[in-house]
What we know:
By secondary structure, this protein is α/β, with parallel strands linked by helices. 50% of the residues lie in helices and 13% in strands. The chain contains twelve helices and nine strands. The chain has helices at 3-14, 30-42, 62-73, 78-89, 103-109, 111-121, 137-145, 160-169, 190-200, 217-224, 234-242, 248-267; strands at 18-24, 48-51, 97-101, 125-128, 149-150, 153-154, 174-177, 208-211, 229-232. The chain is globular and about 45 Å long.
Amino acid sequence: MSRIQQVFADLKTAGRKALIPYITAGDPDLDTTLMLMHELVAKGADIIELGVPFSDPMADGPTIQLAYERALRQGVGLNDVLALVGRFRETDTATPVVLMGYMNPVEFMGYDRFVDSAVAAGVDGVLVVDMPPEECQELTDKLHAKELDTIFLLTPTTSESRAKTICAQSSGYVYYVSIKGVTGASTLDVDHVAQQLNRLRQFTDLPLAVGFGIKTPADAAAVSRVAEGVIVGSALVSVVADLQTAGAVEISSQVSAIIADMRQAMDHA
């Protein structure tokens, strides 16, 4: 059983839902990201999604795009992100880390080298936003062979036939995008999310985690009533942006406080 599967199994036994914060690696710098990862875990995060900076993030709104730009200006690339995960593993061997990014850096590194490096660093799962499920077999086979989970996105506009294909390629959990559009956009409609999740459950037994549009503890609590996981990204990254010159301690304090409030709200939902 992978670390991701173990987390969801333990949470199900405990009657709780997974809280999955997303942050961009290297925003505003790698040392701050490392501190933030540990603080997020201390305040109730179950899994960490770590964004790999990329110059053309087509699924992300302005908040995440600017985070990528801040990291890229410092020269942060895929090798640096993998090294960061290795540093995180020096003191945390339990919390799953999922790399979330785009295909170009993986292809540039090469599938075999990427998979081997991810395993060596302590990565648990990979979400490649622009990897079509119809063209992913080679990479997913290599990832699964090394017991790395493959997480895919499903959206409100995903057809039934494509949802079946995506669920068949997925492991660990399935990421359901709650809104039409990019990260940080629009308003959350939890009733519609619940309907969509019920539709998807006929295709998979994997946990369903919901992201995009979750900004407040009330949002997190509402989504936790209908999904196995709650993913929070832009609400955290926007705080990092506001405090980028304030220092690692202040950034970690304020971002982890948001997660603590969401954790509390979810546990009382």
